[in-house]
Amino acid sequence: MKIKKIHSALMMIILALSSITNVNAQKENIKNDVFWNTKDGQPLNSQGGGIFKFSKPVNGVQKYYWYGVHYEEANIYRNAPYITLPNATFKSVPCYSSVDLVNWTFEGDVVTKDDVNKSGKTWVGRLGVAYVKELNKYAMFVQHDTEVLIMISDSPTGQFTWHQKINMEKMIGTTNTGDQTVFTDEDTGKSYLIYSYGKGRNKIYVSEIGIKEGKVNLLDCTQIFKGESREGNCMFKYQNKYYMYASNIYGWDASLAYYLVADDIRGPYLPKDEMLVTNGASDDFAHVSQTGFFFSVKGSKQETILYCGDRWANFAGNGLGYNQWCPMSFDGKTPYFNSLNSWNINAKTGEWKVAKDNDYVKNGSFEADRRHIPSPVKPVQKELTGWTNEVIEGNKISLDTLTSPVINYFNSENDKKIVIGEKSLNITDKINFKRKTFQTITSSPYVKLEDGSYTLTAKVKNTKGFKNLEMYALSNGNRLQYDFKEENVSWKTILIKNIPVKAGKVEIGFLAGGTANASCQVDDVSFVRE
Predict the structure, then answer these.
(1) With contact defined as beta carbons under 8 Å apart, do 137 and 153 qualify?
(2) What's the rounded Cα separation, in Å, for the pair 225 and 267?
(3) DSSP label of 517
(4) What is the per-residue DSSP string for 99-122?
(5) Are 397 and 372 in contact (CB under 8 A)?
(6) How far apart are CA 437 and CA 435, in angstroms?
(7) Quick check: 141 and 132 in contact, CB under 8 A?
(8) Which of 127, 142, 268, 473 is the most buried (most CB within 10 A)?
(9) What is the full DSSP assignment across 169-210?
């Protein structure tokens, strides 16, 4: 009896320790493609801002502070993601704090409508915060109507008050900036405003933040890029090199992630006036996001750069969640974007790893593309991002809008009550057709597709008129399929379980043979380890 009691007690301790381990693992998890909450379960609303780790600890505790804009429409979309909202109405600038970059505490609204609307209701955009040691104050730089507003506070979480507005015209030729972020060089302690030209956004500048005539201001201006228009301007430093990042001028939509590299923050940046596309970001337009800001996690074992992308979902309808964070890798000085749905970060060591529940499909909800595809207008596309279409019979997929099938479908409001986002895969043709739409998932240089058993899931609906219609997975010579050629008027979830993956490669896709005008829509495709 005594032995049984000891055994039971040991089991309870083991279970408790196991529970703690699982909780800690979950606490370190970054989950994209969902709406984020604070650690007490409240909506986390922060767009167009940045994370800052100030050199001066507050009350002896070193924390991360995250600032961004809370738009009034954000919670409306969160509660009804089938509605695409036309406006972005400034509500406040909230401040969140964290010690691990995963669990965030709401510190309060450090800027309110009343704070910024002194001269009438206006637009408030991208912003960042710098610690100004000469004044022992924190300065927030805000895109404000047609100029740049500087606000100051005695603490990172205190109320920021109106300091001054600066007109950029004498410096760059426009009164305002195009897009902007604040970057702090931890090695020097100096902070900089990174911004673009206000009209056309075809130039990018760096200005040091400091004191001029007793007030916080910009001390200088260096043009570091002139070329194709860019927005979402932001910067990070890694192994003594400065990386200047930006996105396409696509409005609210996702973009490729472009960059330049320099040894000095004021340049020269290479390649000169010709930005490079980040490897790994092309298959889903940087995890269906736009460059927001970066943050460097300098841990005890390694340094990890976090790409923090904005997904303006409530305005573009392009998928769930507002913030998409992905870890960067490097081959020498060449950056690589790891597009992950779920991953774990250890802020103390700087180490990261793919989470077991990561979805390996790229552009699985078909939201990366801006328009009907094929698109003859910028960006010119014949294929859906991340996917390949093989026409066996039927009209070729081409830029000929009269003959080519349209290979994505714009979801209705009722569709979006069931599936995610604006768009889905569209399999149809004006004549009898046979087509294969597929994606090959493989290990990347930095993310391994582990051997194991996986589940492929999708939502589908289709008309009559299909001789065959199937979802399949092909891995290491094994082919599994799910047939669904019978009519599905409403969305149906289909899945294939126990897909054996070996050698880091699997092909997933849809095979269709239909009569003229038969159609099938596919959305929310996922491939997750069991």
Answers:
(1) yes
(2) 9
(3) T
(4) SSSSS-EEEEEEEEHHHH-TTSS-
(5) no
(6) 7
(7) no
(8) 142
(9) HHHHSSSSEEEEEEEE-TTT--EEEEEEESSTT-EEEEEEEE
Which residue type occupies 182?
Answer: V
Q: Tell which residue, 27, 26, 46, 22, has the closest CA to residue 35.
A: 46
Q: How far apart are CA 143 and CA 253, in angstroms?
A: 20
Give the span between the Cα atoms of 280 and 337, in whole angstroms: 5
Partners of 470 in beta bridges:
483, 511
- For CA atoms 213, 215, 216, 218, give the dihedral sign: negative
Instruction: Give the angle subtended at the CA of 248 by the CAs of 242 and 251, to the nearest 5°.
Output: 130
The angle formed by the CA atoms of residues 315, 162 and 185, to the nearest 5 degrees, is 75
Interatomic CA distance for residues 32 and 340, integer angstroms:
8
Q: Provide the 10 A C-beta neighbour count for residue 497.
A: 12
- The span from the CA of 367 to the CA of 80, in Å, is 18
Token couple for 387: 């996917």
The residues pairing with 291 across neighbouring beta strands, listed in sequence order, are 309
Q: What span, in angstroms and rounded, lies between the C-alpha atoms of 67 and 126?
A: 10
Q: What is the pLDDT along the chain (530 residues), one digit of tens a residue?
A: 433 443 444 444 333 433 333 333 346 999 999 999 999 999 999 999 999 999 777 777 789 999 999 999 999 999 999 988 888 889 999 999 999 999 999 999 999 998 888 766 777 889 999 999 999 999 999 999 899 999 999 999 999 999 999 999 999 999 999 999 999 999 999 999 999 999 999 999 999 999 999 999 999 999 999 999 999 999 999 999 999 999 999 888 999 999 999 999 999 999 999 999 999 999 999 999 999 999 999 999 999 999 999 998 888 888 999 999 999 999 999 999 999 999 999 999 999 999 999 999 999 999 999 899 999 988 899 999 999 999 999 999 999 989 999 999 999 999 999 999 999 999 999 999 999 999 999 999 999 999 999 999 999 999 999 999 999 999 999 999 999 999 999 999 999 999 999 999 999 999 999 999 999 999 999 999 99
Side-chain half-sphere exposure of 89, counting CA atoms within 13 A:
10
Tokens representing 232 are: 């979402």
Q: What is the DSSP letter of 168?
A: -
State the Cα–Cα distance between residues 437 and 512, nearest whole angstrom: 9
288, 367 Cβ separation under 8 angstroms? yes
List CB contacts of 201: < 8 A, sequence separation 6 or more. 178, 179, 229, 230, 231, 249
CA distance 314 to 85: 6
Distance, CA of 155 to CA of 133 (rounded, Å): 12
Radius of gyration of the chain (CA): 25
User: Does residue 151 contact residue 162 with C-beta atoms inside 8 Å?
Assistant: yes
